[in-house]
Amino acid sequence: MLAPPVRSAPTALRSAAPTSVQLVQQPALAGPASDPEGVEKGPVVPEQLRLALAAERSSVSPLARGLGAPSESWKLPDSDLVVEGWAGDPSLFAVRRPDRRLVDWVADTGDGWGSYIDGHLVIDAVDGDPWLSRDAQHAVSLLRAALDQQGA
């Protein structure tokens, strides 16, 4: 069975979607960068970011939540990954391969957006602090960086 057609991202995410992830030299939060005039340039993922996974699982897979079929889906720029969201739960987005295989997900933790790999929160490998993002789009960028580091 083929995957359903990919639609555009919801307006709020589509307008914030970067064309590419910009890299910086110093460790920084995964969040929007600004140019000297204060205009946001898109997600920033630190170049020397060393990511790890929390020891304990702290998030349940979107597949186990009984949400039904996603109401929105869109392809990530410069990637084969597809993001899916549910109108019934705007605090969760699944990230899938084109064959619909679940890669991982991002979810609102209450303190920010977390990136999860197999239910384990992505954390800083040096100090163990969670890497939280300001919004879902930035969390997906951080998830992509974590997957790249794992060679996934």
Primary descriptors:
11 strands, disordered N terminus, 38% strand, mainly beta, eight-stranded antiparallel beta sheet, globular, three-stranded mixed beta sheet, 152 residues
Task: Describe what this molecule looks like in 3D.
The chain has 152 residues and is mainly β. It is 14% helix and 38% strand. The strands form 2 sheets. Strands 4, 5, 6, 7, 8, 9, 10 and 11 form an 8-stranded antiparallel beta sheet that branches. A 3-stranded mixed beta sheet has the order 1-3-2, covered by helices on one side. The protein contains 2 helices and 11 strands.
Classify the secondary structure makeup into a structural class: mainly beta
Uncertain stretches of 5 or more adjacent residues = 1-35
Whole-number radius of gyration? 15 Å
| Alpha carbon gap, first and last residue | 24 Å
β-sheet strand percentage: 35-45%
Shape: globular
Averaged pLDDT: 75
Number of helices: 2
- H/E series, N to C? HEEEEEEEEEEEH
What is the helix fraction of residues, given as a range?
A: 10-25%
Tally of extended strands?
11
Profile the largest sheet.
8 strands, antiparallel
